[in-house]
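Hey, quick one: can you model this chain's 3D structure?
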Amino acid sequence: MESNFPRVGELVIGTCSKLTPHGAYFEIFDYENLGLESGFVHISELSRTWVRNIRSHIREGQRAVSKILRVDTARGEIDMSIRRVSEPQRRMKLNEFKQENRARGLVAVACENVNVSADDVEKILLGKFSSIYEGLISVREGTAEDFIEIGIPEAAAKEIHQLAVKELRPPTVQLTGLGKITCFNSNGVDLLKNFFKSFKKTSNKKYKSSKIIIQIVSPPDYRFVIESVDWKTAEGIWKDLQNETNQFFNTYDAEYSFERQDR
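Sure thing. Here's the predicted structure for all 263 residues.
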């Protein structure tokens, strides 16, 4: 976990722990250390329609996807919204949750088989990958030695690799976006070619389990297709693309803009 608190705008999954006349309290997955009532959804943020009876929209023990609206770290308060989460976003987050739980389960089984601490292995994986699932998919496409190199005990690495190959499916998430990039320098075409080549090389090394496809629509328009293990990883690549475009062309006479297509 990167922080003790979620970020504003982050999508999270929580389990309703308490209902009040004014809203619902949630325990937030991946932030359980904050407590059973760390997240609060006001009654006005439960649904896009008027809420007459709060229990007709949410019940104790029910799981829901919420968007973080406000975080007060000093008071330990987190305000969330369910109504501001679109149906595609909800499905995406639940799918990520399912994938991550599946990956954690495989790590637990593998470590138990060879008497290695699953918690220690998870910490190592999360130190190298954005999620346990991404780490397992990455090694699924490689060898057990890839795990050994990052510090996972050999016996556990071999067991995890074997289970990942057998049980996990390859990447299923696809992010698409359009980019308009114009470089007015005399060698602008070559600069663009070199930038795209460099970005793909860097990304393929950083995100081994992902694939980046760059298509020319009609200069200066380009289409980017990012295939990855989960949305968090895909969105990280999309953000890297924009940041690196800005860094690369900042010293040149250039214009650029980006727009997501898959939302």
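One thing worth noting: Helices lie at 87-114, 118-128, 132-140, 144-149, 154-167, 188-206, 231-249.
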